Amino acid sequence: MTEHDTDYPEIRAEVVKLCARFPGAYWRGLDQARAYPTAFVTALSEAGYLSVLIPEEYGGSGLPISAAGAILETIQSTGCNGGACHAQMYIMGTILRHGSAAMKQLYLPQIASGALRLQAFGVTEPGSGTDTTALRTTARRDGDHFIINGQKIWTSRAEHSDLMLLLARTTPREETRKKTEGLSAILVDMREAVGRGLTIKPIRTMMNHNSCEIFFDDLRVPAENIVGVEGQGFRYILDGMNAERLLIAAECIGDGTWFTEKSVHYARDRQVFGRAIGQNQGVAFPIARAYAQLQAAKLMVREGCRRYEAGENAGEQANMAKMLAAEASWACAEACVQTHGGFAFAEDFDIERKFRETRLYQVAPISTNLILSYIAEHVLGLPRSY
Ligand SMILES: Cc1cc2nc3c(=O)[nH]c(=O)nc-3n(C[C@H](O)[C@H](O)[C@H](O)COP(=O)(O)OP(=O)(O)OC[C@H]3O[C@@H](n4cnc5c(N)ncnc54)[C@H](O)[C@@H]3O)c2cc1C
C-alpha cells in the first residue's frame, strides 16, 4: 500500500505532534496582539512541511498535492492556523512551472529550506478583486528594469514575506487584443524594495491574517525577475488556482473537523436539566448534518487531488471542493457556537477565533458566487454572466 492510499497517516501524526507545541493560548496571544506566528511557521519550515510540493532536485520532498492537503487539513484540525503560511507551499508553483532554469535554481532551493519566504501574492487591487483583468498596477520597461506604479490590497503576509509574486500590466489594455493579455507575473524582492518605492500598510481585519495594502511608487525591479513570457502572467496565475483551491478546501475540512470534535465533546459533557445536551436532537442534529456535509466535501477534495495528480483537468472538482468545504466548515462552526451556548463567545474556548478565521474562505481567495459562475458557465454550459 502506498502512502497515498493510506492518506499519509505518518505525516498527519507528526504534524499533530508539532502542532501540540502551539496550543490555543499561543494563538489567542497572537490574535490579541495581531502578531505573526513566527515560531509556528519556523517549526513547520524546519520540519520540511512547507516545501513538500517542491521537487527533490530543488531541496523539497516532491510529494503530490494530496500530501500538502493532508498537512494543512491536520494543522487546522488541531486548532492551529495554516493561513499564516499556506501560500509558501503553492505560490512557488508559478516559478516551478513557468520560471527560467536560472530562476528556479536561484529561488527554489532557498524557498525549500525556508531561507526565503515567498508567501505574498499581489493580485487584488482596490478597484479589481473579482474582476482581475481590470487591475491598474503597471510595470513599464526601462532598460534592464521594470518601473512599477500602482496599488494592491489584501496582500496577505506581506510583512512576513521576502518575495512577492506580483501581477501587473506590462502592455496597456488598449494595445492588447484581449483583456487577459498584457499582464505579467513579476517577482518583487520586498527586502530591497521597502522604502525604495514600496510601502506596506497592514489592514486591521476581523482575524489575525496580516493582510496589507501595498503602494508602488516608481519601484525599480530587475527585468530578469519576470516569470516566463512577458504578457502571459494572467494565464500563469490561472494555472496555479486549482492547487490553491484544493489546499484551501483541505484547510476548511480541518477547520470543520476541529469544530465537530469540540461540539461532540461538549454536547456529551454539558449537563442541562440533569442530562447531556447532546441527548436533545435539537442539539445533535445540526452537528450531525454539518458532519455529513463535511464528509461529502472531503470526498470532493480527494477527487480533485486525484485528478490533479493524474494530470487531468481538475477545474470543476477543485472549484466545487473549495465551495463545498468552505460551506461545510461554516456549518460545523455554526453548530459549534450553538452547541456551546454562551461559552462559545468566551475567548478561552477558541471557538470565536476559529469562527472568524474559517469565515474568510467563502470570500477569499475566490468568493462562492464566482465558483457558482464557473460551474454554471464552464461545467453546465449556461450563458456567461459577466
Ligand atoms: C483576509 C483576506 C486576505 C486576502 N488575501 C489576498 C492575497 O493574499 N492576495 C490577493 O491578491 N488577494 C487577497 N484577497 C482578496 C480576495 O481574493 C478578494 O477579496 C476576493 O477575490 C473578492 O474580491 P473583492 O473583495 O474585490 O470583492 P468584489 O469583486 O468587489 O465582489 C463583492 C461581492 O460581489 C460578488 N460579485 C462580484 N461580481 C459578481 C458576479 N459577476 N456575479 C455574482 N457575484 C459577483 C462577489 O462574489 C462578492 O461577494 C484577500 C481578501 C481578504 C479579505
How is the secondary structure organized here?
Blueprint: H1 9-20, H2 24-33, H3 38-46, H4 65-77, H5 86-90, H6 92-98, H7 101-113, E1 118-122, E2 138-142, E3 145-156, E4 163-169, E5 183-189, H8 190-193, E6 198-202, E7 211-222, H9 233-269, E8 271-272, E9 275-276, H10 281-309, H11 315-340, H12 351-359, H13 368-379
Parallel strand pairs: 1-4
Antiparallel strand pairs: 2-3, 3-7, 4-5, 6-7, 8-9
Helix pairs in contact: 1-4, 4-9, 6-9, 9-10, 9-11, 10-11, 11-12, 11-13
This protein binds flavin-adenine dinucleotide.
Flavin-adenine dinucleotide binds next to β1, β3 and α13.
Structural commentary:
The protein has helices at 9-20, 24-33, 38-46, 65-77, 86-90, 92-98, 101-113, 190-193, 233-269, 281-309, 315-340, 351-359, 368-379, and strands at residues 118-122, 138-142, 145-156, 163-169, 183-189, 198-202, 211-222, 271-272, 275-276. The longest helix is centred in the middle third of the chain and has 37 residues, at 233-269. Helix content is 48%, strand content 15%. With 386 residues, it is α+β, with helices and mostly antiparallel strands. α1 (9-20) runs parallel beside α4 and α11 (315-340) runs antiparallel to α13. Strands 2-3-7-6 form a 4-stranded antiparallel beta sheet, with no helix packed on it. It is built from 13 helices and 9 strands. The mean pLDDT is 97. Flavin-adenine dinucleotide binds at residues 121-124, 129-130, 154-156, 205, 209, 211, 360, 363-367, 369-370, 373, 385-386. Residues 121-124, 129-130, 154-156, 205, 209, 211, 360, 363-367, 369-370, 373, 385-386 line the site of flavin-adenine dinucleotide.
